[in-house]
Amino acid sequence: MIISEILSLAENLNSKVYLHGGPAQLDGGNLKRGGRKGHDMGGLFFVSESEDGYRYAMGYAIARSPKDWAVYRVKLNVPENKIFNFNNPAHQKIAYQHSPEQYQSWERSKGTSGHLDWTAVDEETLEEWGFKGAIFHERSKDVVNAEQDVISVGIFDPTDVSIIEKLTKQDIIEKMPHLYHS
Fold first, then answer.
1. What is the pTM of this model?
2. pLDDT tens digits for 32-54?
3. DSSP the chain
4. Domain ranges of the chain
């Protein structure tokens, strides 16, 4: 990923549309934090709206809800300075001041994009430091056969997200047939 693209992601969090894949039927009309085997993964994860973003969100949605899935177009309602970005020297300084050991661990586990691996972060730690989410290195481009590494934004509180539109499988097939392969 090009450094300017990384900076663009960090600088435009609130003006961009993001994508999230999940079940088509939402309990109470809101996205819910999910987990594997009963373990909460620490937040809701979103990717930037792009062709690769749609492919990634669809793959994630199908894996979670193979029969009845959707891709949600959303806005994030969190100030940029409340999203932890390990590429931001000020945020690195905060991490180092709070815990030099944690900082060193994160330094070793960051992805090729410079962002923290999503599995390396403890939500409670970042919340104690005043953050409401973080930017993550989700997957390397080679793993997902994409043009760029998959960078996600994890938001800890589902109420900090506004759904703009729900795109069902049928919507994707009709509007973006080149992206859907059954």
1. 0.82
2. 766 554 445 567 889 999 888 89
3. --HHHHHHHHHTTTTS-EEEEEESS-GGGS----EETTEE-SSEEEEESSHHHHHHHHHHHHHH-SSSEEEEEEEE-S-GGGEE-TTSHHHHHHHHHH-HHHHHHHHHH--TTSSEEGGG--HHHHHHTT-SEEEEEEE-HHHHT-SS-EEEEEES-GGGEEEEEEEEHHHHHHH-GGG---
4. 3-179
